[in-house]
């Protein structure tokens, strides 16, 4: 039986994101275009794996061709390269959905980066982001896709030159594979070497030698094939038989990335349940690492049969880890919906998570430089576990590294912090914000520096959350330097921390009372500060209030209807404050100065004056008085 080939071909326009992406790929120069072949081979392998899974429930889909395979067919005379598989295949409708859109989050971010970096690291960007099929247009002037879905008696053809439209039409069954997909690349003049045996074999062995499907190379369309990859499951081999190059090759294939792994974790777990694990920590961070919809990248196999890549094997804070788990005990016929509730999977989740965290600790202890790179890439994600994973919180605190007032250019562990803790210091102090340099110069830190108290500088958004869940370490709670009273009186000043001259108590008290009245409704209190040594004023949160940085974050997200009034702390030893305290009120000048002090504190905190017009008018009155 054949399809109705008289049906009119359907011409479609690519969706806007695809069209823009193709334009950049076709018109940009890349440092290494070889990545396209790895992407197409990975797609073919996925199609074979999907068929193997569906064949468990419906063996008829496999027919008498149960062994998966990928064929690479060269045609140097016609300048063509063909990638063919006997996997699940596609219908015409599948082609429209799969080859005309990018069903992946973060596409715009990728394209913005690609446009900015074109000509420098384009191939790495493509590999990291996994745009897959569309990379074919880097080397092809036209791409044709012939496919027949398993279990159907219809075949279809997809064709495009990558210029904005594509065509889909039915074809005779003899023009398509008996089952699966054939991708034909009509190579550009400067890409004809991709029809050369040496070039293709080199790329496959370097980038795709360990896909779990055998690959056969045909030097000509009518030639005998030669096996160039055996499709053996690398994860089932002993570590001693696998080279670092083999691991790197497999990592690029399974992870869809172009870098090398920073860390490889390969082992076999035995006990109540048996399973093999091969996971990788990347050297570079993905562009969509903080995408809220981003899922993990651990594939689940059962006795070498690919089941799903959507099982939540690792917690979200380990979503940067790539790789797979192969279970020997999970039933092959279990539905994907039931997998997540399986006791086998629960055991795997606990075991793999613990092993990865244990391995990270080993790296941190044995190779601090290597761990520093891992932390700089993925530290903000790992810190999510501090408020999500109570069971492993102490382990994650041990892995955490921080910039501090004692080491802004290096990283400090909590073990380092506690080892240098000051006499009578009862808390681990921290400051949150959005900019490390601004944090390091915050006026709220002055009193801590004068006493040699180290303060953690926390510039990541996640820091605003994990610090609020009642965490402690070594018996010491975490305390914000911008929240509540500082209570530093019991901690002695360092030799460099001079004891400031104290003004007359009565004058200061009177000025504090005056400022409370003048600023009523703008602050909850005005008080003398133990934090300040050189600055005149600063803002802090009330003792029972929310940390000021968290409050700002929630307010900007519309999740905080009304912010609490801050506390204005005044440095009684500051020369300006001493003069204000001793001065008489005249013509409202003292009230203006109280408001200007509040606005000064806001500006130092990275905010704007609450009322810009009133701020300008007060400043104008003050300058006129000085000039007169």
Topology of this protein?
Blueprint: E1 10-13, H1 16-27, H2 35-57, E2 70-75, E3 80-85, H3 92-99, H4 107-117, H5 122-129, E4 140-148, E5 155-160, E6 165-171, E7 180-187, H6 197-207, E8 215-218, E9 225-229, H7 244-255, E10 261-269, E11 275-282, E12 297-302, E13 305-308, E14 322-327, H8 336-339, H9 343-366, H10 368-382, H11 385-388, H12 393-399, E15 402-404, E16 407-412, H13 414-419, E17 428-432, H14 436-440, H15 446-450, E18 455-458, H16 463-466, E19 472-473, E20 476-480, H17 505-518, E21 525-528, E22 537-540, H18 548-556, E23 567-570, H19 575-582, H20 589-604, H21 612-627
Helix pairs in contact: 1-4, 4-5, 9-10, 9-12, 17-19, 20-21
Secondary structure: number of strands:
23
The domain count comes to 3
Q: Note the beta-strand portion.
A: 15-25%
The CATH architecture of the largest domain is 2-Layer Sandwich
The overall pLDDT, averaged over residues, is 85
Low-confidence runs: 103-107, 118-130
Gyration radius, rounded? 32 Å
Could you give the order of strands across the largest sheet? 1-6-5-4-7-3-2-8-9
Helix percentage range? 25-40%
**What is the CATH homologous superfamily assignment of the largest domain?**
Histidine kinase-like ATPase, C-terminal domain
Reported for the largest beta sheet, the result is: 9 strands, mixed
Instruction: Output the structural class.
Output: alpha+beta
Molecular shape: elongated
**What's the CATH C level of the largest domain?**
Alpha Beta
CATH level 3 topology of the largest domain: Heat Shock Protein 90
The end-to-end span amounts to 101 Å
Number of helices: 21
């Amino acid at each position: 039986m054949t399809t109705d080939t008289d049906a009119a071909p359907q011409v479609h326009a690519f969706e806007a994101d695809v069209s823009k992406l193709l334009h950049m790929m076709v018109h940009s120069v890349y440092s290494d275009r070889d990545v396209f072949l790895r992407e197409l081979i990975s797609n073919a392998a996925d199609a074979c794996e999907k068929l193997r899974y569906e064949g468990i429930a419906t063996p008829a889909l496999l027919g008498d061709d149960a062994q998966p395979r990928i064929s690479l067919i060269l045609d140097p005379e016609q300048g063509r390269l063909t990638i063919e598989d006997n996997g699940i295949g596609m219908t015409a409708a599948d082609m429209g959905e799969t080859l005309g859109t990018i069903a992946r989050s973060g596409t715009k971010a990728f394209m913005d980066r690609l446009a900015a970096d074109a000509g420098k690291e384009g191939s790495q960007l493509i590999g990291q982001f996994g745009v897959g099929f569309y990379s074919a247009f880097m080397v092809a002037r036209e791409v044709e896709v012939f496919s027949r879905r398993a279990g159907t008696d219809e075949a279809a053809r997809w064709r495009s030159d990558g210029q904005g439209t594509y065509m889909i039409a039915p074809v005779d069954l003899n023009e398509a594979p008996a089952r699966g997909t054939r991708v034909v690349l009509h190579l550009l003049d400067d890409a004809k070497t991709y029809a050369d045996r040496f070039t293709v074999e080199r790329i496959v062995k370097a980038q795709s030698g360990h896909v779990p499907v055998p690959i056969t190379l045909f030097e000509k369309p009518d030639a005998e094939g030669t096996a160039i990859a055996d499709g053996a499951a690398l994860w089932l081999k002993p570590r001693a038989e696998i080279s670092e190059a083999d691991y790197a090759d497999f990592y690029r294939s399974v992870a869809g990335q172009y870098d090398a792994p920073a860390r490889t974790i390969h082992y076999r777990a035995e006990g109540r349940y048996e399973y093999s694990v091969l996971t990788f920590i990347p050297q570079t961070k993905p562009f969509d690492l903080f995408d809220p919809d981003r899922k993990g990248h651990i594939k689940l196999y059962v006795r070498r049969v690919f089941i799903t890549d959507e099982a939540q094997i690792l917690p979200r804070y380990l979503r940067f880890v790539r790789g797979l788990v192969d279970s020997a005990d999970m039933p092959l016929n279990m539905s994907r919906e039931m997998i997540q509730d399986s006791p086998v999977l629960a055991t795997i989740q606990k075991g793999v998570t613990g092993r990865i965290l244990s391995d990270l600790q080993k790296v941190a202890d044995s190779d601090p430089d290597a761990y520093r790179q891992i932390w700089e890439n993925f530290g903000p994600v790992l810190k999510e576990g501090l408020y999500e994973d109570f069971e492993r919180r102490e382990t994650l605190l041990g892995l955490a590294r921080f910039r501090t007032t004692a080491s802004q250019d290096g990283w400090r562990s909590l073990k380092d912090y506690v080892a240098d803790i000051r006499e009578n210091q009862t808390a681990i102090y921290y400051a949150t914000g959005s900019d490390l340099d601004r944090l390091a110069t915050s006026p709220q830190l002055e009193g801590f520096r004068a006493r040699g108290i180290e303060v953690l500088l926390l510039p990541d958004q996640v820091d605003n959350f994990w610090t609020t869940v009642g965490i402690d370490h070594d018996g010491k709670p975490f305390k914000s330097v911008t929240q509540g009273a500082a209570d530093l009186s019991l901690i002695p000043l360092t030799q460099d921390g001079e004891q400031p001259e104290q003004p007359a108590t009565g004058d200061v008290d009177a000025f504090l009372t005056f400022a409370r009245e003048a600023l009523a409704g703008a602050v909850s209190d005005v008080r003398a500060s133990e934090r300040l040594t050189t600055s005149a004023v600063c803002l802090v949160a009330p003792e029972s209030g929310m940390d000021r940085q968290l409050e700002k974050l929630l307010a900007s997200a519309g999740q905080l209807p009304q912010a609490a009034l801050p506390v204005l702390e005044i440095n009684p030893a500051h020369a300006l404050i001493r003069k204000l305290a001793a001065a008489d009120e005249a013509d409202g000048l003292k009230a203006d100065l109280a408001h200007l002090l509040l606005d000064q504190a806001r500006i130092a905190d990275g905010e704007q004056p609450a009322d810009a017009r009133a701020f300008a008018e007060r400043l104008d009155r003050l300058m006129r008085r000085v000039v007169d």
